[in-house]
Structure prediction request, 465 residues.
Amino acid sequence: MSIRKASMCLIVLAALVLLAVPSFADSQVRIVRLSQVEGNVQIDRNTGQGYEKAFLNLPVTQGVKLRAKDEGRAEIEFENGSTLRIIPGTVIEFPELSMRDSGAKVTSVKLQEGTAYLNFNGAKDDEFTLNFGREKMVLTHSAHLRVAMGDTDATVAVFKGDVEVAGPSGTVQVGKKQTATFDLADQDKYTLAKNLEKDPYDAWDKQQEDYHQRYLNSSYTNYSPYAYGMSDLNYYGNYSYVPGYGTMWQPYFAGAGWDPFMNGSWVWYPGFGYTWVSGYPWGWTPYRYGSWLYVPNYGWGWQPGGSRLGWNTVPRVINPPRQFIPPQPPATSGHGTIVVGRGPFVTPAGSGIAGSGNKVVIHDASAGLGIPRGSIRNLGKVSQQVKQEGTVTTTVHTMPVRTSSAAAASPAVRGSSASGSSASRTAAPASRASSPRMSSPEPRSAPPPRSAPAPHSTIPHTPPK
Prediction:
């Protein structure tokens, strides 16, 4: 990463320090990010409706449950960049996601069944507890580990660092490259082995961790508690200084006619109402914090800051062009998910993208939609080619998902509902009023939108099969 780009990233993160207090009546509320979804993954958002289809960038709040079925895999990203990954046959719950008056974050995760990988970036005052069966781990410093729950036993394998596990048979210290096995049928008695048995999904976990390390500068945590989503910003776009406006981030492939709300969903959450969930693979931080700003001859860019009240359920928009209709939460009642999809995205050029070495066509104004993270080296160079030629055919390299039903990240991409029912790709609403949380100076002219918007599609909840 260049010194200039690194310094811009630090400016962005320093501004995010101002956003530590949530914007809801309960000042202790926290959200974390569902940062990757592959295959059949379902979420119970604590709405009373049970499990629904999960998709990229959904906020994970206290009380939420996730389960990965078939060949499903998912990653949850915490504010400090810690990650929790689950593989097929896994169910996890988040009994507590809160913040103390001191600002320290309290996280409790329960592994009900299956296997989870945790890469914890230790923070001095934060509390992170992982429960499985009758065992409990309280993490106080950095560690990378795998926990697996079987029918008769459970194992903790530590790749990096060390952890302490407490249970009915006492406390055991598990060090680097050691494995503790607990006999669930015999009072949870444990054995400690000085070796690690490999799991087929270890390579996937390492691939995802390598991606974050490659695109996330290690000095970020010195400037902000909000490191989540930043590796995606560095991969899918870049920062630049715009005279008269300051430092802004812009995604690659943001051609003429693109706007930040072309693809995503409105999702209802208890206590919060409808929240905008972006369909873009980088679409977390720019929609939870800061503002989207339109600059003539530059286009749309994201700026940090702009609110000391915490994360936004409705993204802030500043200085939109005259033709732009600002986003507004739906007026409909109920807990359905409303999909917005009116922009282009990456399309397969042959066999699709869920494999190694597959050809895809990248379109102008796709803004990275449909490009798996880390699958194309030097994405900025490819973006310049697309800007000149309109479309480019290139190769993506991803780790295969071993099922024909391997899913994309968002219903806005595949055209499926968040509840698992089928729906065609839909367009934006024909009319939307201004959001109460946005500031709109005198708008300036801009190129006309690529296509006229049409009404939303409301997708009712249906239980997954």
Confidence is low (pLDDT under 50) at residues 1-27, 218-225, 351-356, 402-465. The two ends are 45 Å apart (CA to CA). The CA atoms of residues 152 and 184 lie 5 Å apart. Residues 3-16 form the longest helix (14 residues).
